Amino acid sequence: MARALVLTLITAAALTRAAAAQYEPLDALVQDGVRRGVYPAAALIVGNSRTILHARGFGHFTWSDGSASATPDSTLWDIASLTKVVATTPAAALLVDRGRLQLDAPVQRYLPRFIGRDKEQVTVRMLLDHTSGLPAGLDPRQRRVPPDSVFALVLRTPLRRSPGTRAQYSDLNAILLGRVVEAISGQSLDRFAADSVFAPLGMSETRFLPPPILRRRIAPTGQWHGSPLSGEVNDRTAGWLGGVAGHAGVFTTATDLARYAQWWLRRGVTRSGTRLVRAETVDTFLAPRAAALPDFSAGNRAPPGNSRRPLTALSPRPTPTGTPGTRGRWSGSIPIAISSWCSSPIGRTDPASPNPSPPCTRSGVGSPTPRCAPCPGPAGRKSDPLASIFQFGGRSPQSAPRSPRGSEG
Question: What is the distance between the alpha carbons of residues 178 and 242, in angstroms, rounded to a whole number?
């Protein structure tokens, strides 16, 4: 009996080593980014709809080895524009599934103050696939005003082109959709997302407005007077809106993002087997539909063959690793990139904006907006974007992206 037990343990250990070896090329790829000073910390998860096959953290929160180490299940990341697809899009999908939100209804049905030339033609679907005609964001020269006044600026922003004629990635689409969710649900976006999306999916670490007690676990996104800045949303417009907005503001872990990705792969079924939305609703949000080729003139790079956009187009700007739904990978593979600390030099936080904003802000009405210095990497090198890549579907490491570099936002 003892001999059989020893043989079983040896066999299990050998299988574990063999499984780990399968992902060594991916581990080496991400670790090389830390070594070269591309980013100080990263988390990598490989999985499929049923399970996580491999999870590992790399590096430290800052370039000091004495700072906290990154881990897949504990480190919280400011996921910036992944908020659009992790909070706002599923909130809209839930309301569509419940018959409370109509995709082809005019936005004015839910937000009567959304008025202006041709705005009566803008539908909820156009907010989701970025064909509303709205610009990329607010004019950064606008003075700091209370959150309600900031949203009034969003409502008053004129269209740049006729609705439905051309796609342009826009934070304003997601901000408006977030307010549509609030108008229908009667809850703030952060509360609705927490109760109706994050909790059912087991995403216990995911939230807007993380409390101060969690800041020691949050990867910094910049410096303020020489000290790492963490826990403050690294998006000026989201900061103006009080830290809760449809386009940015969510903090989460790699493990929680894996659970979210698995939910889509299971076509709306949670880990416990509960169906949160109907499969038909999932298909509606993932099915490509004919749309004008997106306008990437503001700094975005279009992936090949992206003339058909799913409603998950509220996901982040396409990166070299792709985004959910853009390349037909929903059947089994979801690559996602998020930004690490010191992800961009001053003035380049939002490449899609014609007048990019400073790289970090403090939320709270009336407080000054700090112009945070970029964080130098080893030997003074500036850090480039990327904190985590999540690769689902069990693709072999050899078929993974050759470079982990993504784009912030």
Answer: 14
| Separation CA 8–CA 2 (nearest Å) | 10
Backbone angles phi, psi at 238, to 5 degrees: -65, -40
Residue 361 has pLDDT above 60, yes or no: no
pTM here is 0.75
CA distances to 3, 7, 9, 151, 396 from 14, in Å: 17, 10, 9, 58, 20
C-alpha to C-alpha distances, 65 to 69, 117, 269, 281, nearest whole angstrom: 8, 55, 41, 47
Other C-beta atoms lying within 10 Å of the C-beta of residue 269 = 17
CA distance 319 to 161: 25
Q: Tens of pLDDT along 230-278?
A: 888 989 899 989 999 999 999 999 999 999 999 999 999 999 999 999 9
Place of tokens 């490449």: 351
**Between β-strands 41-47 and 388-392, what pairing exists: parallel, antiparallel or unpaired?**
parallel
Asked whether the CA dihedral 22, 252, 377, 402 is positive or negative, the reply is positive
